[in-house]
């Protein structure tokens, strides 16, 4: 270690000691970037760690990730009492899992401090306890739909093209599931627990994907009652239309359409979120858009599920039915060219698995251009990467 490195470590340690005097606690929000105090601590670890220590820690952490996911699915974390200890034997009986296997799995998570072990018995830390609840419910789908496939990326790229998936039907995800040729949504619809996990994840990152506060949907309102104003393409269970109509009463429910796959529309009917009057239309977004001349075709959290070629294909199905003042509104993260946030970086890796993509402004311009559309503007939610890309027909 050089004298300069040592000086930097000591200066940072002093800064951390100083900042600890006013430290008010950590963030409880999922997928947000580390707040300043934690960032400093992470920077200190990076400065102190040698490359060998980094690699060791990375290997242990990666294995711990798979083990924590396993402990959740074996109900091991759930079987540990919220206060006090449980013996290995009792844990084995409660989870119907071989004692010696459990002992080995638990060794890694007690080593990292995730769980506590004393005299052959185990107890929770405040972190592991949180994994029994909401944090575990958010961690599991990230593992199942992202990490699980990503671990096999080197192998996948070795047998496949070394490029982004051309179609969501032929992705790392479909290959890993042994179901190439099917769409991600078709595959997931046969897995209710994983679909539920994704739904829980999506509803718990709304602080990073707000519905309103950055785009004036009121300007879409039309006196012409015969004209559709808001077509929500791949609109999900109706929560988006509900929120937008609530915030912009100028838009009439009867002028809105929720388009999605039959199964999702069924879910929308069951959840009853949609305001009365909104029409439901079964539609495959890779086929011709059935509603002509709408004021806006809205795609929220849809573009990122698709690779460039499929997004262009989707947009090209709308372009021929657009009027001269029709808009396409794409609500997504709009990444900056250099560094992403924790949320968009993680999301992009999950999308890489399923054949989708988080995009920069430049990426959006390219796909819009190829589909015959021009970007009219970007409306970002304050302080977030999320926003609306507004587009319309290219002028001849
Ligand atoms: C990530 S969800 C986003 C839902 C909603 N827009 C939101 O912001 O919560 C993607 C949606 O696309 C729908 N979808 C997937 N493939 C589709 C297809 N081929 N045609 C129409 N909708 C599709 C799914 O059913 C799902 O509702």
TrEMBL record:
Residues of the O-methyltransferase dimerisation domain: 63-132
S-adenosyl-L-methionine as UniProt keyword: yes
Domain of life: Eukaryota
Keywords: Methyltransferase, S-adenosyl-L-methionine, Transferase
Molecular functions (GO terms): O-methyltransferase activity
GO process annotations (BP): methylation
Residue ranges annotated for the O-methyltransferase C-terminal domain, each copy included: 229-373
InterPro entries given in the database record: COMT-like, COMT_C, COMT_dimerisation, SAM-dependent_MTases_sf, WH-like_DNA-bd_sf, WH_DNA-bd_sf
Keyword Aminoacyl-tRNA synthetase found: no
PANTHER family xref list: O-METHYLTRANSFERASE ASQN-RELATED (PTHR43712:SF5), PUTATIVE (AFU_ORTHOLOGUE AFUA_4G14580)-RELATED (PTHR43712)
UniProt name for this protein: Uncharacterized protein
């Amino acid at each position: 270690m050089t004298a300069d490195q040592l000086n930097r470590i000591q200066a940072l340690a002093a800064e951390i000691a100083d900042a600890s005097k006013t430290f008010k606690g950590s963030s409880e929000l999922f997928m947000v970037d580390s707040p300043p105090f934690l960032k400093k601590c992470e920077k200190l670890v990076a400065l102190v760690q040698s490359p060998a220590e980094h690699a060791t820690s990375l290997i242990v952490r990666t294995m711990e990730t798979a083990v924590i996911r396993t402990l959740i699915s074996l109900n091991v974390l759930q079987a540990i009492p919220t206060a006090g200890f449980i013996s290995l034997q009792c844990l084995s009986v409660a989870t119907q899992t071989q004692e010696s296997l459990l002992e080995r799995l638990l060794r890694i998570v007690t080593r990292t401090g995730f769980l506590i072990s004393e005299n052959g018995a185990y107890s929770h830390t405040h972190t592991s306890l949180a994994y029994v609840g909401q944090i575990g419910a958010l961690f599991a789908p990230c593992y199942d739909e992202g990490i699980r496939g990503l671990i096999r990326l080197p192998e996948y790229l070795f047998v496949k093209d070394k490029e982004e998936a051309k179609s969501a039907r032929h992705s790392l995800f479909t290959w890993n599931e042994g179901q190439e040729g099917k769409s991600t949504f078709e595959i997931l619809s046969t897995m209710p627990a994983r679909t539920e996990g994704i739904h829980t994840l999506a509803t718990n990152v709304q602080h990073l994907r707000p519905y309103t506060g950055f785009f004036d949907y009121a300007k879409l309102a039309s006196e012409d009652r015969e004209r559709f104003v808001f077509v929500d393409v791949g609109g999900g269970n109706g929560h988006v239309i509900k929120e937008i109509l609530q915030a912009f009463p100028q838009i009439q429910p009867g002028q809105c359409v929720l388009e999605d796959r039959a199964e999702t529309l069924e879910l929308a009917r069951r959840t009853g979120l949609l305001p009365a009057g909104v029409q439901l239309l079964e539609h495959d977004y890779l086929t011709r858009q059935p509603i002509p001349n709408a004021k806006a075709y809205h795609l929220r959290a849809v573009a990122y599920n698709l690779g460039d070629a499929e997004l262009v294909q989707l947009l090209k199905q709308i372009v021929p039915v657009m009027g001269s003042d029709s808009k396409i509104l794409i609500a997504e993260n709009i990444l900056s060219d250099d560094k992403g946030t924790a949320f968009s970086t993680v999301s992009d890796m999950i999308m890489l698995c399923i054949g989708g993509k988080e995009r920069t402004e430049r990426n959006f311009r390219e796909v819009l251009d190829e589909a015959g559309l021009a970007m009219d503007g970007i409306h970002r939610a304050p302080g977030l990467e999320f926003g609306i890309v507004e587009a319309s027909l290219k002028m001849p």
